[in-house]
């Protein structure tokens, strides 16, 4: 009987040891998977924000108010409007080609020379993201903060009409947004366990992390793997001698100057990660020894009672891991029955999975809101780029995008289209006699009259000054185009009731026909229409000339 009791006790102890080992392995695997997920979630969040910022800077560089910084007040209004929309943009400024700041938010650094700053030098060459750096020129100008001012910079060149670089627009993003992302990423429970988020530069400098490591260099296996572009998790020894479970990934794209390549490490100590597993192991061993001594005859039943709940819990954990890896929503971990410890563990795992799913859902909602905001801002900026601010008509950029499509439609429909160049006759006299305000009102009414006179399928655009363009599609022949131009001319000769007077002007119209079989040569088409318009001018003005 004693031999049987000893054999049963040893068997039970061995079985408990195996179950404990498996539980620890599962706990370690789950912890590493969670840390890996947190790492790439932080990476994706950083990539989205920096990507959104570089897109904003590129669009900003295309705005007429920014490209032509000769009116600093108008330029500053655009910059400050963007800063109010995105609080993380600590400073936005426009510098000319010599490096002198011409307009900036809050007038900070206006008149200062920034030609030696990395963001300016990089922005002269193209859109660029400049890595983490302390505030220098702005340190004394910005409000005092509990954390020192640190920035990353986004810059892009400002091109003139001749495509020459005439300046740089730059955005200084406060490093506080990275601190906030890290704080949002870690739940209170993870922070209580000592989980930490580290953002490390390519040279090993810690940009975000524990205070004792901040802006100091480290060298760990996870850092080396992340900087090579790897994604995963591992067990490693940290600079402080502690053993950590670490998830790692890298932001940015190799060779892309508009992205920043940082290693993102999310870690906590192995002891904290496996504390519950170790505690469960100790309780299981003592319970098994006691039951083996007192109830040797019931050892087989006890073994079944121990293994079944753990098997069920293990299966549920593996299913949750598989569902998470597949991108789906894991089922709730069931609260297993059998013995108290298994219920405690299953309940803890159930709450952990629920917490992780709620956190992921919150991140997805936040990401969607961010994407919607970026899309709306991009649409607003795109509308500004494609329309004339005075008349509301499409501008030269919109016209140049539309003309190739018109040529393609003419080829498909086997019907010619025509390009009408209109130059207002008598506009300078109105402008000089009655002032620019009345001249602007005349331009608006002239554009409205043109737009109302053509079909919805046709296009009216303002090129510059008193020059307008009409694109007519679905024509029969050159005579059809000439007749429509004559009709427009007759309509435009009617008087215009301005704010303080009534005036009459005419127009010289050059018509260039594009036949379905003609080559798609946009420059030649524009040149023919322009030449015909000047022929109409030379022919006495207020007439229509058809290009050869």
Structure report:
The protein is α+β, with helices and mostly antiparallel strands and 548 residues long. The chain has 4 domains: 23-45 and 186-274, Beta-Lactamase (2-Layer Sandwich); 50-178, PAS domain (Beta-Lactamase); 332-385; 396-546, 2-Layer Sandwich (Alpha-Beta Plaits). 51% of the residues lie in helices and 19% in strands. A 5-stranded antiparallel β-sheet has the order 2-1-5-4-3. Strand 12 (459-464) and strand 13 form a beta hairpin. Helix 1 (2-62) runs antiparallel to helix 5, helix 10 (299-325) packs parallel to helix 11 and helix 13 packs antiparallel against helix 14. The model has no long low-confidence stretch (mean pLDDT 85). InterPro entries: DGC-Regulatory_Protein, GGDEF_dom, Nucleotide_cyclase, Rev_trsase/Diguanyl_cyclase. It comes from Massilia jejuensis. It is an enzyme of class 2 (transferase). One of its GO terms (molecular function) is diguanylate cyclase activity. This is Diguanylate cyclase domain-containing protein.
List the helices and strands and how they pair.
Blueprint: H1 2-62, H2 64-67, H3 72-85, E1 89-96, E2 101-104, H4 118-123, E3 128-134, E4 150-159, E5 165-174, H5 176-185, H6 188-192, E6 196-200, E7 206-208, H7 221-227, E8 232-237, E9 243-250, E10 263-269, H8 270-273, H9 275-294, H10 299-325, H11 340-386, H12 396-413, E11 417-425, H13 427-434, H14 436-453, E12 459-464, E13 467-472, H15 478-493, E14 496-497, E15 502-503, E16 506-514, H16 522-538, E17 544-546
Parallel strand pairs: 16-17
Antiparallel strand pairs: 1-2, 1-5, 3-4, 4-5, 6-7, 6-10, 8-9, 9-10, 11-13, 11-16, 12-13, 14-15
């Amino acid at each position: 009987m004693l031999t049987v009791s000893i054999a049963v006790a040893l068997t039970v102890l061995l079985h408990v040891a195996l179950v404990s080992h498996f539980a620890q392995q599962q706990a370690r695997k789950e912890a590493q998977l969670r840390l890996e997920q947190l790492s790439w979630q932080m990476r994706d969040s950083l990539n989205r924000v920096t990507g959104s910022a570089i897109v904003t800077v590129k669009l900003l560089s295309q705005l007429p108010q920014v490209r032509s910084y000769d009116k600093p007040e108008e330029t500053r209004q655009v910059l400050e409007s963007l800063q109010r929309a995105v609080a993380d943009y600590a400073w936005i400024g426009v510098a000319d080609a010599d490096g002198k700041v011409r307009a900036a938010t809050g007038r900070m650094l206006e008149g200062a020379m920034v030609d030696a700053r990395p963001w300016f030098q990089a922005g002269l060459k193209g859109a660029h993201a400049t890595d983490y750096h302390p505030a220098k020129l702005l340190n004394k100008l910005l409000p005092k903060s509990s954390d020192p001012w640190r920035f990353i910079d986004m810059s892009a060149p400002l091109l003139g009409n001749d495509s020459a670089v005439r300046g740089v627009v730059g955005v200084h993003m406060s490093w506080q947004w990275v601190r906030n992302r890290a704080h949002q990423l870690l739940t209170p429970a993870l922070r209580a366990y000592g989980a930490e988020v580290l953002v490390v530069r390519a040279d090993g400098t810690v940009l975000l992390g524990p205070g004792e490591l901040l802006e100091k260099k480290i060298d760990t296996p996870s850092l080396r793997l992340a900087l090579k572009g790897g994604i995963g998790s591992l067990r490693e020894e940290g600079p402080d001698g502690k053993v950590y479970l670490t998830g790692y990934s890298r932001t940015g794209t190799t060779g892309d100057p508009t992205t920043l390549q940082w290693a993102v490490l999310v870690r906590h100590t192995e002891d904290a990660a496996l504390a519950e597993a170790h505690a469960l192991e100790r309780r299981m061993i003592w319970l098994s020894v006691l039951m083996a001594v007192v109830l040797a005859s019931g050892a087989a039943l006890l073994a079944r009672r121990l293994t079944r709940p753990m098997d069920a819990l293990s299966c549920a954990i593996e299913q949750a891991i598989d569902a998470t890896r597949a991108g789906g929503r894991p089922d709730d971990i069931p609260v297993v029955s059998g013995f108290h410890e298994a219920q405690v563990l299953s309940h803890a795992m159930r709450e952990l999975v629920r917490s992780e799913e709620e956190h992921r859902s919150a991140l997805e909602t936040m990401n969607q809101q961010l994407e919607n905001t970026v899309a709306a801002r991009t649409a607003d900026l795109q509308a500004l780029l494609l329309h004339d601010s005075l008349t509301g008509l499409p501008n030269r950029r919109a016209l140049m995008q539309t003309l190739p499509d018109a040529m393609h439609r003419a080829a498909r429909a086997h019907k010619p289209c025509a390009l009408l160049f209109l130059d207002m006759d008598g506009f300078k006299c109105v402008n000089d006699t009655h002032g620019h305000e009345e001249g602007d009102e005349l331009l608006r009414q002239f554009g409205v009259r043109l737009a109302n006179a053509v079909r919805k399928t046709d296009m009216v655009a303002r090129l510059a000054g008193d020059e307008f363009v009409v694109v007519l599609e679905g024509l029969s022949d050159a005579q059809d185009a000439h007749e429509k131009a004559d009709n427009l001319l007759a309509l435009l000769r009617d008087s215009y009731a301005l704010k303080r007077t009534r005036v009459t002007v005419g127009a010289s119209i050059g018509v260039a026909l594009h036949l379905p079989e003609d080559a798609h040569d946009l420059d030649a088409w524009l040149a023919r229409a322009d030449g015909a318009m000047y022929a109409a001018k030379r022919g006495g003005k207020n007439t229509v000339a058809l290009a050869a």
